[in-house]
UniProtKB/TrEMBL annotation:
<protein>
    <submittedName>
        <fullName>Metallophosphoesterase family protein</fullName>
    </submittedName>
</protein>
<dbReference type="InterPro" id="IPR029052">
    <property type="entry name" value="Metallo-depent_PP-like"/>
</dbReference>
<feature type="domain" description="Calcineurin-like phosphoesterase">
    <location>
        <begin position="1"/>
        <end position="190"/>
    </location>
</feature>
<comment type="similarity">
    <text>Belongs to the metallophosphoesterase superfamily. YfcE family.</text>
</comment>
<dbReference type="Pfam" id="PF12850">
    <property type="entry name" value="Metallophos_2"/>
</dbReference>
<dbReference type="InterPro" id="IPR051693">
    <property type="entry name" value="UPF0046_metallophosphoest"/>
</dbReference>
<dbReference type="InterPro" id="IPR024654">
    <property type="entry name" value="Calcineurin-like_PHP_lpxH"/>
</dbReference>
Length: 199
């Protein structure tokens, strides 16, 4: 399966156009959250992605709630938040929001580590784990040099050992990759990222 993946679009029209143009070569498109800004403009973000030539799996970021994303999603989009889906024999599980709780205030959709851990316990197997936030210690460092990833997400990766763990959220770590065991972790960012998975 050929996967086109991205995160943190934040209503950027040029980035969206590049992703849509690339989508003709994809079997599946994955969006790892933050499609709009501070809970504003989500319908516009979905319209920017409306030309996608492949089905989409989306998780909410901290810039939109799960309910808001489900309401705005187009017919070819499947929203995962504490839930999984199987496509062509591959198992995908998604968890959105900022984990741990961000310092951004009331608009930000966040989860505590404890609650995120509970939601991730619903997953007993996955080939691809899609989260908005990165795991602690991989692709999670801010410009100030601070590791701000999630312990709960890291623990889930250690337990499940998916082939891929896809995330975003920490802009300073966009494009970074690393491993937890045999699982490759990728902090995506809003540019075209291609990934291949064997069934």
């Amino acid at each position: 399966m050929k996967i086109l993946a991205f995160s943190d679009l934040h209503l950027a029209p040029v980035a969206a156009a590049d992703l849509v143009a690339a989508s003709g070569g994809a079997d599946l498109v994955i969006g790892a959250g933050d499609f709009c800004n501070m809970r504003q403009g989500l319908d516009r973000a979905m319209q920017l992605l409306s030309g996608m030539a492949a089905p989409l799996l989306l998780v909410p970021g901290n810039a939109e709630s799960a309910d808001e994303l489900r309401a705005a999603a187009l017919p070819n989009m499947n929203v995962l938040h504490g839930a999984g889906v199987e496509i062509d024999g591959l198992r995908f599980f998604g968890l959105g929001y900022g984990v741990p709780v961000t310092p951004f205030g009331a608009w930000s959709c966040d989860l505590t580590e404890a609650f995120a851990g509970q939601m991730l316990e619903a997953c007993d197997a996955a080939d691809v784990l899609i989260t908005h936030s990165p795991p602690k210690g991989v692709a999670d460092v801010t410009s100030g040099g601070v590791s701000v990833g999630s312990e709960a997400i890291r623990a889930a990766i250690e337990r499940l050992q998916p082939q891929l763990a896809l995330c975003g959220h920490i802009h300073d770590s966009w494009g970074q990759r690393g491993y937890i065991g045999d699982c490759q972790v990728v902090n995506l960012g809003p540019t075209v990222t291609w990934l291949e998975l064997d069934h």
